[in-house]
């Protein structure tokens, strides 16, 4: 279950964040809604993604990867990213090849079965994602979630 979302722009002349928030839909489901604007076309987009687990502060857990989003949409390659992509694709408006410009929307995302295909330990997690355009950090999206039995 999602527990918190924190996002921020690091370069407001390229990326604006209007909305980054969770919404409790019912007792079992909390959704993530995001609205950002890319002010100039981005041809070169990379994401640093890191999964952390809470144990006296958040500690690295499993993966830290950097992947090229433009290359991914030309030809999906990374099996982990493919799993995550399948879980998010119905909720996002940016499932296309580069360049990216204009609104970047995530509407009503929630953690679904697809992400739970793989066995998870219980606990609290943080998925940190840092987004780079032309190798320069532009914004970050940090998602906190808890896994119970
Ligand atoms: C910030 O965005 C501007 C406008 O798109 C771009 O020219 C500049 O290189 C960016 N700066 C950094 C540090 O990313
Ligand atoms: C995103 O935010 C912009 C600026 O506030 C707004 O004009 C636009 O309607 C929003 N889009 C969605 C889908 O909420
Ligand atoms: C993007 O999403 C639309 C609508 O959900 C879908 O029809 C299209 O096949 C998707 N494209 C990719 C590359 O997944």
Question: How would you summarize this macromolecular structure in one to three sentences?
Answer:
The protein is mainly beta and 149 residues long.
Which H/E pattern describes the elements?
EEEEEHHEEE
Number of helices: 2
Number of strands: 8
- What ligands can be seen in this structure? 2-acetamido-2-deoxy-beta-D-glucopyranose
Q: Can you tell me the overall shape?
A: globular
Beta strand %: over 45%
The structure class reads: mainly beta
Task: Report helical residue fraction.
Answer: 10-25%
In terms of per-residue confidence, which ranges show pLDDT below 50 for 5 or more consecutive residues?
Answer: none
* Nearest-integer average pLDDT: 92
Q: The biggest beta sheet, please?
A: 5 strands, antiparallel
Rg on CA atoms, Å? 15 Å
Strand order of the largest sheet: 1-8-7-4-5
Question: End-to-end distance, in Å?
Answer: 11 Å
């Amino acid at each position: 279950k999602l527990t918190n979302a924190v996002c921020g722009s690091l370069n407001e002349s390229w990326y604006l964040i209007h909305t980054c928030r969770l919404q409790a839909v019912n007792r079992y489901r909390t959704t993530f809604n995001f609205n950002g604007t890319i002010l100039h076309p981005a041809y070169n987009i990379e994401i640093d993604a890191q999964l952390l687990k809470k144990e006296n502060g958040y500690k690295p857990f499993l993966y830290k990867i950097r992947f090229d989003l433009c290359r991914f949409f030309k030809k999906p390659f990374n099996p982990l990213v493919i799993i995550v992509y399948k879980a998010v694709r119905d909720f996002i408006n940016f499932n296309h090849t580069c360049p990216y410009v204009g609104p970047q929307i995530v509407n009503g995302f929630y953690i679904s079965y697809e992400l739970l295909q793989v066995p998870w330990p219980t606990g609290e997690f943080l998925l940190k994602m840092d987004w780079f355009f032309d190798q320069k950090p532009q914004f970050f999206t940090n998602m906190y979630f808890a896994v119970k039995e």
